[in-house]
Amino acid sequence: MSRKYIKIFGFSHSYFSGHHTWPIVGNLPELCKKRLTFLWIESIIQKLATDIGCIRLGNVLVTVVKSLELALEFLVKKDNVFLSRPLTMATEYVSRGFLGMAVSPWGSHSNKDCSVVNLRFALRHYSVNILRGILFSRRFFGRGGGDEEAEHLDAVFTILRCMYVFTVSDYLPSLRIIDVAGHQKTIKDAMSVFNKYHDPIIEKRIEQRRNGKKHEPENLLDVMITLKDERGRPLLSPDEIKAQCTVS
Description:
10 helices; mainly alpha
């Protein structure tokens, strides 16, 4: 382990490096043993009494900043570094290969207790019902309040929970085939639910538009279908529309 100094925005700051790093994987083994990643990182920073530290996760060097003032300088003066969203396994699957703007990295697509439990249950249903209404002009799938609605609701919050969760394969993509911790299977299962309920509606709506059976937009899905580029061609492909309906 060594302590070095780097110069940031005209000031010198000490940081640690070489914290028991392993060949190829870096500090990933230590993180995999910890349930809460940020607590392990925080303990290292406190132990070494430093404001800025550097750990290696696979081939990625991760800089950890403890100082509020220094963090503010990063965000204000180097905002372009944080402009793009991180590339993760979950966001790639959810957006069908980064076709949806909400989670895509910077680029072409981004330009284009009992009472408590009951309240949480109600708010979950209410918020998702609103989204269904905006996107598809419907409050629920199936008969309402049944298995279909519960399945779709669970899929929505599974994706939200897993979107930016720490996973080893985001730092070592070659490990995706192993699916460490099962995150990839969780995302795939949730996306299969989205595909089951969303895709038939989207495909039917696109076909109706092509056949002239629908004219005035009735929901956000219709708006996305009718968008045209400067040459009068559809601005969004069917897959891009499906991705937008997933991550909107």
